[in-house]
Each structure stands twice: as structure tokens, then as C-alpha cells.
Amino acid sequence: MRKSELPPLMTIADTMAYLQCSRQHVYDLLKAGRIRTYKVGRRRYVDADSLAHLFW
């Protein structure tokens, strides 16, 4: 999946599938400040632009 095909906000599960990694790794990236997330109620969404910056 290319960045242009990504939705603007992704769930943690979508991010895990895109990066092919574990849930813990996604939360480690979040804690390290490498990806940006937003909370809506109890759900957390990952900003797709911040995923693109992981590979730049």
C-alpha cells in the first residue's frame, strides 16, 4: 500500500497490518515520538503522514 492509498487516519490494527509489526512495536513508536496519534473517545488513531515520515 502506498502513502497515497492510505486513509488520513488509521487504527492501531491498520497500522500493525501496514507496518507488518506487533501492537507493542506500534506503541513503542508512539512512545518514542516517531508517529503521531489522536484520541477520539477511547480509540486511538495514527496519522498516516507520520507513518510516511518513518521511511524518509
What's the structural blueprint in terms of helices and strands?
Layout (H helix, E strand, L loop, with lengths): L8 E3 H8 L3 H10 L4 E4 L2 E5 H5 L4
Antiparallel strand pairs: 1-3, 2-3
What coarse outline follows from CA principal-axis ratios?
A: globular
Structural class: alpha+beta
Overall pLDDT metric: 90
Main beta sheet, described?
3 strands, antiparallel
Q: Percent of residues in helical segments?
A: 40-55%
Number of helices: 3
Task: Tell me the Rg in angstroms.
Answer: 10 Å
Give the total of beta strands: 3
Order of helices and strands: EHHEEH
Report how far apart the termini are. 16 Å
As an assembly, this protein is single chain
pLDDT < 50 stretches? none
Instruction: Please state how the strands of the largest beta sheet are arranged side by side.
Output: 1-3-2
Please state roughly what percent of the residues sit in beta strands, choosing from under 5%, 5-15%, 15-25%, 25-35%, 35-45% or over 45%: 15-25%
